[in-house]
Amino acid sequence: MDSPFPSVPQSLVTDGWDPVAQNDIDAFKRRLFSHLKHSRAKNPETATSNDWYQVTALAVRDMLVETWMDSVRAAAHADSKQVYYLSLEFLMGRSLESNLLAVGMWDVCLATFADMGLDFGGIKTEEPEAALGNGGLGRLAACFMDSMATLGIAGVGYGIHYHHGMFRQEIRDGQQIELPENWLTHGNPWEFERPEYTHPIRFGGWVEQGQDALGRPFFRWHPAEELMAVAVDMAVPGYGGFSANSIRLWAARASHGFDLVQFNKGEYLDAVRAEVDSESLSRVLYPNDSTQQGRILRFKQEYFFSSASLQDILRRFRREQDDDFDLMPQKVAIQLNDTHPAIAVAELMRLLLDEHHCPWADAWTICKGVFSYTNHTLLPEALETWPVAVFEALLPRHLQIIYDINAVFLAEIRQLRPGDDDLVRRMSLIDESGERRVRMSHLAVVGSHHVNGVANLHTELMKNGIFADFEQLYPGKIVNKTNGITPRRWLNQANRPLARLITHSIGDGWQTNLDRLRALLPLADDSAFRDEFLSIKQANKRRLALFASRSLGAVIHPDSLFDVQIKRIHEYKRQILNVLHVITRYNRLCQRQFRQNVVPRTVVFAGKAAPGYVLAKLTIRLILAVADVVNRDPRSRDALRVLFVPNYDVSTAELIIPAAELSQQISTAGTEASGTGNMKLALNGALTIGTRDGATIEIAEEVGEENLFFFGLSADQVAATVRDGYDPWAIYRDNHELAEALEMVRNGAFSPGEPDAFKPLFDSLTSGGDRYRVLADYGDYIACQDRVDAAYLQQGDWTRKAILTVARMGKFSADATILDYAREIWDVHGTSPYALGEQRN
C-alpha cells in the first residue's frame, strides 16, 4: 500500500503518548531518513508503508545492537554460566512495538510519525508475524527469553528458522484451509545470518567399530547424507535496555548445493534436487505427521536443531574452557523445552565420546550435569516415541548410545529393586510392547538432573502418573515451576490504555515487578477507578467489534458479554463443550419464555487445528456452521453471536485478550499441563470460567474462588470414571437439553445439505466413549454459565472482581518463574537491576 496510511484513525494512534522533545523527534527522523536513503534507496515521496516499517525496524535495531553486543561481551568476560534454551518453537509475535517499548522509544516514534503526518498504526501492521511457533509452547519460550533478558540472565534460545512456519489458516466454505505462512517475503530486518557458524548435520549410513592404537574401543559413524545448519540470530532486548540475549535459529542448507554438470546436461530439476531436499528440513513447523514422510521429516527436524545447537554450545564452551569438559556442568545449563529436543542427550554423548574422546562414565556424568527437562503434557500420545527402525535407518550411532544408556540405567534399577522385572519393563528407554520404540521422555528424564512440571497439579499428576516410577526411585528430581507470562507484552503492550491507567494510579515499576499490582486492591472499591477501568474494557470491545466488521464482515455487539475461548483446537481443550452451550443457549432463545432479561453474549473462538487432526478440523467446521445459523436467526441474533477469528496468532491475541470479559478454561481436569492463555486473559481483567485444571487452580488461589466460576469433575473424579466405568449414553438420556443439542449436531440441523457431516463428533461423545468427559461436565457447565449471566447483570460487582483479578496476578509473571529456574535448576544469577532487587528479596 502506498502512503498515506488510512487503516487506523489518527486519534487511536496518538492517544496516550506523552509529549516529547522536538530534538528527540528530529534525531529519530534523521535515523529514519538515513535508512530510507541508504538501506532502501527511496525518497519519502516514493516510500511505501512497508518501506517505512523496514526503516523504522532498522533504526530501532541500530539502538539494540550496541546493548546486544555489550551483553554478549560482558557474559564472556565474566566467564559466567550460560543458559541454553532448546525449543522447537519460539512464537515471538511482531517485534517492532515490543522493541520500541523495551528501549524506551515508543513515545518518540509515535511523535515522529505524527510530526511527519504519517499513521504509525498502519505502518506497524506491515510487520508479519514471525512464523516460528504455533501455540502455548512457543509463546512460553518467547516469554522466557524476554524475562531472561530483562533479568540479565545470560543465555541463548536455540530453535529452527522456519521458512513458512506451521500454516496460515483461512476459512473457505466453512472449513479450515491451510496455506503457507510467507512471513519472509520482504525479508526480516530483525535477523542476522551468521554463515561463519555453520555445522554439519548427518543422517543414515553405518557405524564402524574397532580399537585404536592404545587398545581403546572406538566407534566411527559413516553417514550417508549430510546437510548444513546455518545460524540466524535475533536479538531479544530486556525491558529498560540494560541487557539483551540472542535467539539462534538454524536454517537448513545443502552441503554441496547446485550441480552444474547436471544442469549443463539439461537435467535442471536433478541439478537442484539436493538443495531443495536439504532446505525442506527447515521449511515448515510440524509437518503433517499423518504420513510416514511427514513423521520422518519431523524426526529429522528434531535432530537437526538439537545437533546444531549442541555443536554450537560445545564451540562456545571450548572457546573459553578449551577441552576441560569436566567444567561443563559449572558453565553450561541446557533446558529441554518438552521432548522435541530430547535426542540432544544422545547427541551430546556422541559428541563427547566419538569426537572428543571422553570416557563413557565421564561423558554421562557431564550430560546429567548440564541437562534439565520441562514436561508439558500428561497425554500418553503426546509423549514422543520413535520406532527403533527409524533410529536404525537415520541415527544408527545414537541408537547404540541409547542402548548403552539404557543398559547402565536398567542395571541401576535392578540393583535398587532386585527381581522387579515389571519395573524394569516400565522404566526402560525402549518400549518392547508391539513395535519396539524409543521413549523420548524417558531419555530426557534419565539424562537430566531436574525434571519440572509447569503447574502444581500437573507436577503432582506427573509424580503419581506418567513418571511415578521415576519419582519413587529418585525423589526430589521432579519439581514444579508454574508457567508465567511477560507483563511487558501481555499488559504494557497489548493493553496500553489499561497500562497507562495502572501507571497513573499506582506508579511505574509494575512492568518488572508484577506484585506491585496489589496496590490496585483498594481501588477495586473506588467508583471513579472502576468507571475508568470499565470504560477501557468497553473501548477494547469496540476495537474488536470494528476489526470483526472490517476484516471478517461480522457484526458483534460491544454491549454484550464477550465470552472468549482462544487456543489450539483439540478434543481435551473441549471447544465442543463450549459449542454445546451455544446450541443450548440458542435453543432457549428460540422459546419465547427464555427471552426475558437475557444477558446478550458474544462467543469468540480462535485457534488452529493440526492438518491431520480430523475431529479438530470438524470441530472448527461445526463452530462455523453453528455461527451461521445463530447469527442469522432473528430469534437469537440480538442476544447471541458467535465469532470465529481465523489464523490465530500473537497479534490477534493482542486484539482479543484486552476485550475479553469471560475466559474459557474448560479442559478436562487433569489434561491441561498449565495454560498461559488463562494468565493473559486474567491479567487483562477477564473473569475465568473453568475446571480445576492446570494453573487455573493456582489462579483461583491467588484471586479468590469468589472471583471466578468453577464447574465440573476434578482430576480425581475423572480418574474415578476411568477406573469405575463411565456411560455417556446414560447422561444423554437423563438430560433433555443435552440430548436436544446433540441430536441437532447428529441430524444435520447445522448442515442441512450434508446431514451426516457432524456425526463423527456425535459418535465420539457417545458410542466412542466420550474420552474427555464432555457429557459428564455438561450439566454443571450449563448451570455455571447461568451463574455467569446473573453475575454479569451486576456490572459494578463484576468490574470489582475484574480489578481484583488483575491486582492479584503477580505470581504469574514469567520473571518470577525464570528466577525460580535460575535459583533451583540452572544455578545462575541475573545481573540487571530488576534481578538484583528480586534476588535480595
Strand order of the largest sheet: 5-8-9-2-1-10-11-15-16
CATH top level label of the largest domain:
Alpha Beta
Low-confidence stretches: 1-17
CATH fold description of the largest domain:
Rossmann fold
Note the gap between the termini.
52 Å
The percentage of residues in β strands lies in 5-15%
The total beta strand count reads: 22
- Number of self-contained structural domains: 3
Identify the CATH homologous superfamily of the largest domain. Glycogen Phosphorylase B
Q: What value does the average pLDDT take? A: 93
Short structural summary:
The protein has 841 residues and is of the alpha/beta class. It contains 35 helices and 22 strands. Strand 6 and strand 7 form a beta hairpin.
Secondary-structure map:
Layout: H1 10-14, H2 22-38, H3 49-78, E1 82-86, H4 96-102, H5 106-115, H6 120-124, H7 136-151, E2 155-160, E3 168-172, E4 175-179, E5 191-203, E6 206-211, E7 217-222, E8 225-237, E9 244-254, H8 260-264, H9 268-279, H10 292-321, H11 328-331, E10 332-337, H12 344-355, H13 360-370, E11 371-374, E12 385-387, H14 388-394, H15 396-416, H16 421-427, E13 430-431, E14 437-439, H17 440-446, E15 450-453, H18 456-464, H19 468-473, E16 478-480, H20 487-493, H21 496-506, H22 527-552, E17 561-566, H23 575-589, E18 601-606, H24 614-632, E19 640-645, H25 650-656, E20 662-665, H26 677-683, E21 687-690, H27 696-703, E22 709-710, H28 715-724, H29 728-734, H30 736-746, H31 759-765, H32 774-792, H33 795-807, H34 814-826, H35 833-840
Parallel strand pairs: 1-2, 1-10, 2-9, 10-11, 11-15, 15-16, 17-18, 17-20, 18-19, 20-21, 21-22
Antiparallel strand pairs: 3-4, 5-8, 6-7, 8-9, 12-14, 13-14
Helix pairs in contact: 2-3, 2-5, 7-34, 10-12, 12-13, 12-15, 14-15, 22-33, 23-24, 23-30, 23-32, 29-30, 30-31
